[in-house]
Amino acid sequence: MRDIIAIDGPAGSGKSTVARALAQRLGWSVLDTGAMYRAVTVESLRQHIDPHDSEAVARVAQSAQIRTRPRVSINGRDVDDEIRSEAVNVAVSVVAANVAVREAMVQRQRALAEDEPGGLVVEGRDISTVVFPHARVKIYLTASLDERARRRGDEGHESVARRDHVDSSRDASPLRQAHDAIALDTTGLSVDQVVEEIVQCLKNTTSN
Fold first, then answer.
1. Domains of the chain as residue ranges with CATH
2. pTM: predicted TM-score of the whole model, two decimal places
């Protein structure tokens, strides 16, 4: 297993931005698992599948070819500009709560970690609790609701709060802080400041 930094946290906590900046700082690869669920959501909606139709959505996830770099695509179709649409914002938590979808995505995420050499920064909502429970460093990012809603200006307070509730109360891999994860409140912090904190956490594991 390669070196992994697992970053979890609710919507708008800064996971994607921090993960990309951290990976660049370390010269590691990065995997945005949330983009994978969003890609499945985009494809399901494109096929006019109700997100609550768990079996149909699961079939999409199980058969899909998904790439997250350099842009997000599914089955060869670039969906990078679609994954943050309002329709996807509304539906993605339902898709991500689908047990069969999560099983398919977790399997792929672990395979990706095995396939590439070097370090990997992975971000999502169940990375340190389910996908990579033995990650070298586990980080739980959070921020105030006001701050997170400001960052996710396309959604607003109500949408972010709704996603918090759905993500934390779902039966399949709910959002929660791993017992050995380091909590970082990113409210008022720059990306560089958060990255520096995580780099120090990584250095501490090296020196111990």
1. 4-207 (3.40.50.300)
2. 0.88
